[in-house]
Specification:
It contains 16 helices and 14 strands. The protein has about 425 residues and is an alpha/beta fold.
């Protein structure tokens, strides 16, 4: 015999339960309930034997009274909230671009192969077919040229998104990014804003050697006038890109090539067109009490994996996802350090004058310094140009084992 839950799950995927509930409230006799087995919404695929079993279960269910039926009705099975969906970082960025292009006609995207080829990494897939040549613009291989065009368009009132095939190539256009975009608002005494987003993959990839594997987070965060964003997961990518496009100041948006195809769950709230993440606010991805780990971009995932391993050894790690490099959310870091009394910074860039070095300086200069029970430990890339050979490459960027070792060193375990 089917259980009450079987009956409920079968029927509440239709509107059948609404009819049943209404009848209970009208005081119908239980002998009348068998007629609902021939309700037009009941699937015809059930056999006579199945219907008989359903009738028996239904009678047992109904004998429990009106309260039982009302309770099932209140659960509203067929109106339940949709489950979170899996979305890759690439698709999250694509959705954000699409929604902002649709929302504001001043927004346009330009860069190498962003249009007809759908983007070198397929982030702009489908946008050229939807918005055409005026909004999605393929450019020649001339970063200084098309970046200058984008900055000029921003000064003229448009809101360009300038894509670099990799931020290593942004060195060709650094004069436009720094001298033209970052400094203009200050030099014009606030009269001329430059609402532009510079975006593309940043940091180490796989097998592309020294000239394609550099992290520019510290470079651009060094310059006043720029906001620098470094998302980790699909939620970060979606919410932060929408905020960056709406921002009136130039934003450097540092993505990670190795994260593009990684899926993450997105809640219904995050999928909303109105969802944004404020620039300049970090997020605590994991609560902990023994040590604070601060990271950005792909290394946030490494920290969470390391924290899971350390938890089995009784070490409770708090993991902070910076999200924004400039302005840096020092308050969240300090609050965490005051709780855990230990700090480990993790980044893929070089150690000298890096993001971790800035975090160390801020903590030392602020109130959290008095709460430290040991020196701050930095986990960084090795201080060499990226090798091409895979075994050397793997040993040049932080691995989970390196993070675990540094945490234990900080805690003197």
């Amino acid at each position: 015999m089917l259980s009450i839950h079987d009956v409920a799950s079968i029927y509440t995927s239709y509107d059948w339960l609404d009819d049943v509930t209404s009848s209970v409230r009208r005081g119908c006799r239980s002998s009348d309930w068998s007629k609902y087995l021939t309700h037009p919404r009941v699937p015809a695929l059930y056999s006579a034997e199945d219907r008989s079993k359903m009738a028996a279960s239904l009678k047992c269910f109904l004998r429990s009274g009106k309260k039982a039926v009302s309770a099932v009705s209140r659960r509203q099975f067929h109106r339940s909230t949709p489950a979170a969906v899996q979305v890759t970082v690439r698709d999250a960025l694509n959705q954000a671009l699409d929604e902002e292009l649709e929302r504001d006609e001043r927004v346009f995207l330009m860069g190498e192969e962003v249009a007809q080829y759908d983007g070198a990494y397929k982030v702009s897939r489908g946008l050229w077919k939807k918005y055409g040549d005026n909004r999605i613009i393929d450019t020649p291989i001339s970063e200084m040229g098309f970046t200058g065009i984008a900055v000029g368009a921003a000064m003229a009132g448009l809101r360009p998104i300038c894509e670099f095939m990799t931020f290593n190539f942004s060195m060709q256009a650094i004069d436009q990014v720094i001298n033209s975009a970052a400094k203009t608002y200050y030099m014009s005494a606030g009269l001329q804003s430059v609402p532009i987003v510079f975006r593309g993959p940043n940091g180490a990839s796989a097998g592309v050697a020294a000239q394609h594997s550099q992290c520019f987070a510290a470079w651009y965060a060094h310059c006043p006038g720029l906001k620098v964003v470094s998302p980790w997961n699909a939620e970060d990518a979606r919410g932060l890109l929408k905020s960056a496009i709406r921002e009136d100041n130039p934003v450097v948006f540092l993505e990670n090539e190795l994260m593009y195809g990684v899926p993450f769950e997105l809640s219904e709230e995050v999928q909303s067109k109105d969802f944004t993440i404020p620039i300049g606010k970090a997020k605590i991805e994991r609560q902990g009490s023994h040590v604070t780990m601060v990271a950005h971009s792909r290394l946030v995932g490494h920290c969470l994996d390391a924290a899971a391993v350390l938890a089995k050894e009784g070490i409770d790690c708090e993991v902070i996802n910076l999200r924004t490099i400039r302005p840096m959310d020092v308050e969240t870091i300090e609050t965490s350090v005051m709780k855990t009394n230990h700090l480990v910074t993790v980044e893929g860039g070089w150690p000298q004058f890096g993001v971790g070095a800035e975090i160390c300086a801020r903590v030392m200069e602020g109130p959290a310094f008095n709460y430290l029970d040991s020196p701050v430990t930095r986990v960084t890339g090795v201080d060499i140009p990226m090798p091409y050979a895979k075994i050397l490459e793997d040993n040049s960027v932080p691995q989970i084992k390196d993070i675990i070792f540094s945490v234990k060193k900080t805690l003197n375990v």
